[in-house]
Amino acid sequence: MTTELYGIAASDGIAIAKTYRLESPSLLFDKTTIEDPEAEIERLHAALTVSMQELELIKEQAEKQIGPKEAAIFGAHLMVLSDPELIGPITEKIKNDGVNAEFALQEVSDMFMEIFASMDNEYMQERAADIKDVRNRVLAHLLGVKFPNPGLISEKVILLAEDLTPSDTVQFNPEFIQGFVTEIGGRTSHSAILARTLEIPAVVGVKKLMASLEDGTLLIIDGIEGKIIADPSAEIIEEYEQRQKHFAAQKDELASLKDAATVSSDGFEVELGANIGSPKDVASALENGAEAIGLFRTEFLYMGRDSFPTEEQQFEMYSEVLKRMGSKPTVVRTMDIGGDKELSYMDLPKELNPFLGLRAIRLSLNMPDLFRTQLRALIRASVHGNLKIMFPMIATLEEFRQAKRLFIEEQEKLAAEGIAFNDNIEVGIMVEIPSTAVMADVFAKEVDFFSIGTNDLIQYTLAADRMNENVAHLYQPFNPAILRMVKMVIDAAHKEGKWAGMCGEMAGEELAVPILLAMGLDEFSMSATSILKTRSIISKLSKAEIEPHIDAILSLATAEDVKNYVSKI
Ligand code: PEP
Ligand code: MG
């Protein structure tokens, strides 16, 4: 029977494919006494062999997708699987105690994990996590339950998951992953942003998703309307295939604007940038007509690997982006780790409210060596293009001053070492915390530019978690409180002769664009796939005609009032 479920439209487009559930299986089992230890050992070896074959494939796939360094973790997993010091005691236990393979595996691996975890050495502690991963894979095979491998999918599927972590998503191969649907999340959660970067449709925040759909169900994702249809009839499939064609045709039409400037109908020019998460994304940014990179989320360079990237590795990645962008502005944001962006190899304290905790610039200032490494790599890479640096989550002026001081110190050290760099790098901040928006006039005297991060600014201003679908109604870009702050920030920048951009997803929202244009926003940065549409919208707007409406819009009472008003201009 055809079923429709609704969620939040997270990434445009339509996909039709079978579902693939990404979930951790239950690995519960009973301890049993076995009659034939030799047969049990053989069963263990069979599970070990399949696990190894899978890991070999995943490693190969990851090397192609994300690079050999990042794939090294799977090599470590393979080593665990073939380590006689681990496998020996398991087979001994089956033989001597007459217990089932599951139990022997669990007992022995638990013992090793405990030993490693208690060592005063980070490297060995990480090995405990490797053993656990590998143990679960082998256990799943012993129990005959599916162990999900997002990196191994080799047929066209739509992924279903309760939630997707950034470390799941770095494994995705868009050739096979046609789209995804999650139970948790909002339009600005990182999985949604990634879907837009990969240009695959996604719907997030679909309640009861995992309880409603089985593996292998034929599914349509409508990422434009935020809806999914399970077991569609032939008629519905045909209708959506038509829509798919229409969507592709529209995309082709916009492609003619790729090399055009972004100019309103009355001749006012702005800059349209792309938000990227890795050097790989530059190609799509340029193909989609980006005039700049308005936000390079560098924290993704720290993910999907098993140790911090070195200064040299970072230098290479930043240089690659800068070279490919040439003279086009490239705004690199220093790492925004913490919140939902955790690193498996970093022992961060568990926090009750990670979004209000030690994240982004707070973490960078707390771990200055790590921060200095990133700054050095960036400063050195500045010779290769038009680099601008910005700090995330600035809440106070002291934080900016402290971060800027470290930046200057690293510049001085590099100068003393005789290393070349551009000594005119602009240093700005993200405005994504209300305290900073309110104090924008003071900040504007010291920073070179602002980039308004509405994804976080909205969540902190309305106290509505951007990931939580239960409060999605309070996550209101058009709330006059947000618009007033945006205006304050733009005006404050202009008063000091600085520029103001926006790199939150609001910058690409159809109804927000006229308001932002009329308020004088200088740079709009968004998911690459929204750029051409936004260029087309701006070309049809007259800034001078909208300007007189701004005061009226800012005095409206609710987000609904704003949307109604703007849609009638
Ligand atoms: C923002 O908060 O608006 C932003 C662009 O940063 P991120 O989405 O990475 O938090
Ligand atoms: Mg943010």
Q: Give the CATH level 1 class of the largest domain.
A: Alpha Beta
Overall spatial form: globular
> Which CATH architecture of the largest domain would you pick?
Alpha-Beta Barrel
Regions with pLDDT < 50 over 5+ consecutive residues?
A: none
Distance between the termini: 44 Å
Total helical segments: 23
Strand percentage lies at 5-15%
Using the CA coordinates, give the radius of gyration: 26 Å
Provide tags for this entry.
single chain, binds magnesium ion, Enzyme I, Chain A, domain 2, globular, TIM Barrel, alpha/beta, 23 helices, 3 domains, 8-stranded mixed sheet, 569 residues, binds phosphoenolpyruvate, 8-stranded parallel β-barrel, Glucose Oxidase, domain 1
Quick overview of this protein structure:
The chain has 23 helices and 17 strands. It has 569 residues and is an alpha/beta fold. The protein is globular.
Structure explained in plain terms:
44% of the residues are buried. The longest helix is centred in the N-terminal third of the chain and has 30 residues, at 37-66. The chain has helices at residues 37-66, 68-81, 84-97, 101-117, 122-143, 166-169, 190-198, 209-212, 234-254, 282-287, 311-325, 360-366, 368-381, 397-416, 434-438, 440-443, 454-461, 480-495, 512-519, 531-539, 543-546, 550-554, 559-568; strands at residues 3-6, 8-11, 14-22, 157-161, 177-182, 202-204, 218-222, 227-230, 262-263, 269-276, 292-297, 329-333, 386-391, 426-431, 449-452, 499-502, 523-526. The chain has an eight-stranded mixed β-sheet. Helix 3 crosses helix 4 (101-117). The chain has 23 helices and 17 strands. The mean pLDDT is 92. The protein is α/β, with parallel strands linked by helices and 569 residues long. The chain folds into three domains: 3-23 and 150-252, Glucose Oxidase, domain 1 (3-Layer(bba) Sandwich), CATH 3.50.30; 37-143, Orthogonal Bundle (Enzyme I, Chain A, domain 2); 259-544, TIM Barrel, CATH 3.20.20.60. Helix 10 (282-287) links the parallel strand 10 and strand 11 (292-297). Bound molecules: phosphoenolpyruvate and magnesium ion (MG). Phosphoenolpyruvate (PEP) binds at residues 188, 295, 297, 336, 432, 453-456, 503-504.
